[in-house]
Design brief:
Shape: globular
Order of helices and strands: EEHHHEEEHEHEE
Number of strands: 8
Structural class: alpha+beta
Radius of gyration: 16 Å
Distance between the termini: 33 Å
Length: 183
């Protein structure tokens, strides 16, 4: 599996999403185990069919880049365990060269610093090989863990947007955080 990593840090490695049965099984099992952690902020796929649609969009759509975050030597039989995911969505090139991040840790990995390390790796991918200049994160104000992750990664709060995204049946307020390559 280490050969499949796009990037590695001391404790985590990034791999692209795949439609491999092992990835589907582990991702959906971890998502089901993490429902309590994720709600009401996040709704990752919990079934194989939903994962296939979700991952398929990330794999096929050039305006999206998806990264599975693996804890290296995480105790799984193959030596790594899926810790979370980070996606760059709504990528616009040209003069803008910007993308919007979405992410989630799985319950067994939450609060252990793995996502901080992984977000640093994704930022380097975005500002390096992907050629982006700016990354944005939109976070609901009550999502303290997500705001803390953005802050630790060096993102700055740029503003507040009422009724910004439709999540869980309602329009939700969001804080806007951003980081540029020059930061």
């Amino acid at each position: 599996m280490a050969d499949d990593y796009l990037s590695t840090g001391a404790r985590v490695g990034l791999r692209p999403y795949s439609l491999d049965e092992a990835d589907i099984g582990e991702f959906t099992a971890r998502a089901r185990e993490s429902v309590e952690l994720h709600r009401p902020w996040l709704f990752p796929p919990t079934t194989a069919r939903a994962y296939a649609r979700y991952a398929g969009r990330l794999i096929e759509d050039p305006t999206r880049h998806g990264f599975l975050v693996y804890e290296r030597d995480g105790g799984a039989a193959e030596g790594a365990a899926l810790a979370g995911f980070i996606n760059i969505n709504n990528v616009v090139l040209g003069a803008f060269r910007c993308g919007v991040l979405g992410y989630g840790a799985f319950a067994h990995a939450a609060g252990r610093g793995l996502m901080s390390e992984a977000l640093g790796l994704v930022v380097r991918q975005a500002f390096g090989p992907l050629g982006l200049h700016r990354l944005e994160i939109n976070v609901q104000p009550g999502n303290a863990a997500s705001i803390a992750l953005a802050r630790r990664a060096g993102f700055r709060r740029e503003g507040f947007s009422p009724d910004f995204l439709f999540i869980d049946g309602a329009w939700r307020d969001h804080e806007r955080w951003a980081l540029t390559a020059s930061d």
